[in-house]
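Minutes, project check-in
Item: structure for the 374-residue chain
Input as provided by the requester:
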Amino acid sequence: MNFLSLLQGSLVASLESLRLISFLNNTLDQVLLALLIVVVGWATARIFTFILGRYVVKLTRKTSTQIDDFAIEVFKNVGNFVIFVMAFLYATRVLTLAEQIDIFVERAILVIVVIKVTAAFLKIFDFVVSHYLVPYASKNGILDRTMVPTLNRLVKLGIWAIVALMIVSNLGYNISSLLAGLGIGGLAIALAAQDALSNFFGSISIFADKTFKMGDYVRTKEFDGNIKAVGLRSTRLDTVDGTELIVPNSQLASMVVENLSRRPKRRVDVTLSVIYETSNTKMKEGIKIVKDIITATKDVENHCRVNFQTFSAHGLDIMLSYWIKDTDLEKGQKIQNEINFKIKQGFEKAKIEFAYPTQLLYLKNLDGAPTNPR
């Protein structure tokens, strides 16, 4: 009995001595309690994620909309993070920390949580814009698709700027003096970044005039191609030869831009040159062949102009003008290809010979008599 009492007393003394152990001015009880809070917070976050994934997500999948599914997925990730971080913050309250460390931890957690929540909100904002706002605005003619990426970036930039000011204010800094300093610094930056600002205002000019939208085929004196993207600084085009062309918006806004995609139809001009030996009868037959081909071709207007235009250096020129109803470049090229083959086949069948650059040389003998031309 005395031995058991002695052993019990020894264990109690050992436990008491362990409790007196301190780590950075924190007792063992405080450290263990802080660790317990962190573990409980982690477990709570996992349970929260499990409940959302097991039950709430199943309910949202039964609805016809997609926004609730996406919002739950975002909320699940953010909620998991916030629960664990708040548990960590509460655990630090249990510990005895230096005042500077305590303030630093509190402010750091505040910044991290605000950034995480803002990023999650912007994810939902992007989803709403791309899946709801853009189709509705495009359908009703309220907004051009070309403007959406740039306006989206501007809105998100504004939101991040407001969040940054809120964080700075909560960190104890004076926003008024900061904004005053930014005003002076902004003037200096504006003077040093005139090209960037001119490109920015060039993009606004393009959006306001609705010069083109993504996918349009445009042509200027210097280049032509399909619009791939319009940004705050530059516009990207895919040229016919497959290269990507990047044009500063300030230059593009000052150019004369021909938007070929806005034409209701596309005109094609072709010059058919036949040899001088072609008779008038054959010329008229060739003109009729061309008119019949154009009339019989699908997606081409029946009205066309086919005329014996001029006597060129190498042959007799027949001018053909017709209109393709579809403005799509690839489809138009296929129609041109079809018409050209039919014209060649028709001329070959009628034995009408195409002209090509040739020269006739007349040579004279020394006695002045002409020889055969070469």
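Outcome recorded: The chain has three domains: 19-172, 195-261, 263-350.
No further action items on this chain.
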